[in-house]
Amino acid sequence: KGFGKLPNLTGAAEGDYLTDHLTKETNALIRKFKNDPFFIVLSHYAVHVPLQAKPHLVAKYVREREKLPHVDRSALDSGAYYRTSQDNAVYAAMVESVDESVCRVPRQLL
């Protein structure tokens, strides 16, 4: 899910989440070169379109959104160039996945 056509991306199983797969591959490279100098860049595709997230995290943020006070978006967003409120459960789920990934990478250096 979410892979599309990415050159040189291997080892992903059907249904793997791209953020997790990129993190897994990055961590594998860190382990491989742990005793040698290396430079690595991990650039996640999330949180860009297409907005795709793990269903259990989307469900979590749908529940969280229900706790928020009602916002009349038509009144707030009229004429704005950006969203004036953020209650997109899929977007929030994607941010959590990237945050979790960012925590996993440095652990490989310990």
What does this structure look like?
The chain has 110 residues and is an all-alpha fold. It has one domain (18-107). It is 46% helix and 0% strand. It starts with 17 loop residues before the first helix and ends with a helix.
Query: Using DSSP, what is the number of strands?
Result: 0
Query: Which strand-content bin applies to the residues?
Result: under 5%
Largest sheet: none
**In total, how many domains does the architecture comprise?**
1
- First-residue to last-residue Cα separation: 31 Å
Q: Report the C-alpha radius of gyration, rounded.
A: 18 Å
Which secondary-structure class do the elements indicate?
Answer: mainly alpha
Total DSSP helices:
4
The 3D shape can be described as: elongated
Q: What proportion of the residues is helical, as a percent range?
A: 40-55%
Mean pLDDT: 84
The low-confidence runs, each spanning 5 or more residues with pLDDT under 50, are none
* SSE ordering: HHHH
Summarize the topology:
Layout: H1 18-32, H2 55-66, H3 73-77, H4 89-107
Helix pairs in contact: 1-4, 2-4
How would you concisely characterize the structure shown here?
It contains four helices and no strands. The protein has helices spanning 18-32, 55-66, 73-77, 89-107. It is elongated.
Characteristics of this structure?
elongated, 46% helix, mainly alpha, 110 residues
